[in-house]
Structures are given as structure tokens and as C-alpha cells.
Amino acid sequence: MISPTGNHAEQLTETPFPLFSLVPAYSPSGTRIAFMSSRNHPDLCRTDLFVMSADGHRETMIPTGLTSVDQLAWGIAPIG
Fold this sequence. Notes:
Blueprint: E1 21-26, E2 32-37, E3 48-53, E4 60-62
Antiparallel strand pairs: 1-2, 2-3, 3-4
């Protein structure tokens, strides 16, 4: 992962090949990262939504009720 400023490249996930984690998206505040991963689906047919802190800790799968996640967007930053 590369910081929002474009510096400090660091690997934050460890998903074994051929499974994958991709499409990282920083939250508007820069404190969290959302990404999608096939790690729970060995047949590579689905992806789940995950969120973690920007330092790579507190990784959590977010139940979406969707068959598969294929796009990510945080929306706008909260006021204040």
C-alpha cells in the first residue's frame, strides 16, 4: 500500500496466490482503507468487502448482502 501522499510503500495484506486482494480505497479522512478480496472463495468466483485501519491493523470483513463486491467508493467526507 502507498500512503495518500504517494510515499512509504508497504504491503498490508497477505492473501495467498491464486487468491487476491485488490482495489484499495482510502477513506476521505485517510484513516481507513477499504478493499475487496477473494480470500474466502477458493474458486475465485466472488469477492468480499474488507476495511482496515490505514496502518494495516483491525482488518474486518463487512457483510454486504451482495453476491460479490466489484466496485468501491467511500463517498464524501463528513463535515467537521
